Amino acid sequence: MRILVLIAIGLLLYIIVGNMLRKKKRLSSSDPGAERMVRCHHCGLHLSEKEAILSGKQHYCSQSHLEAEQQAK
Prior knowledge:
The chain is an alpha+beta fold. Helix content is 51%, strand content 16%. The chain has two domains: 1-31; 35-73, no CATH class. Strand 3 and strand 4 form a beta hairpin.
């Protein structure tokens, strides 16, 4: 009887550890289709880096926000 309990506990631990390792591996692998997101310096909107307007080191979501920041200086 003790052997069956030990086997059941071992099997349960094997399943739990296996699921944890698979989940960790899934979370650590990055999505190759994912795009880098940036934040508009003026309004804080997050958008893809491809859509953003870059001025110096700052990103903007639109030309009007870029101009508003330039006028504020």
